[in-house]
Design goal:
The chain has one domain (10-70). It has 1 helix and 6 strands; from the N terminus they run E-H-E-E-E-E-E. The chain has one helix at 19-27; strands at residues 10-12, 30-31, 36-37, 41-49, 52-59, 65-70. The protein is globular and about 30 Å long. The protein binds zinc ion.
Length: 75
């Protein structure tokens, strides 16, 4: 598991993504607190580091931080 909260992360613009992608990422979540998938997240923030790209937000159900790793597909 990569260290997602390292200091070298840079912020990316989540809202530069298409609406379809935004909706997918906001609905397809895993909450470590609720132990449930697809509860959804609010307040998304996107980050990038050498380990990859991920979105941090708050679980719609419990409000805890939830993280979605993004797998970017190379052409
Ligand atoms: Zn939750």
């Amino acid at each position: 598991m990569p260290d997602l909260l390292n200091d070298n992360a840079v912020t990316r613009d989540f809202f530069a993504r298409s609406i379809e992608e935004q909706n997918d990422f906001l609905s397809q979540t895993w909450c470590n607190h609720c132990m449930e998938v697809d509860l959804g997240m609010t307040n998304p923030k996107e980050f990038e580091s050498k380990d990859g790209v991920w979105i941090e937000g708050n679980c719609v159900k419990c409000g805890q931080v939830t993280i979605t790793e993004i797998v970017e597909e190379d052409e």
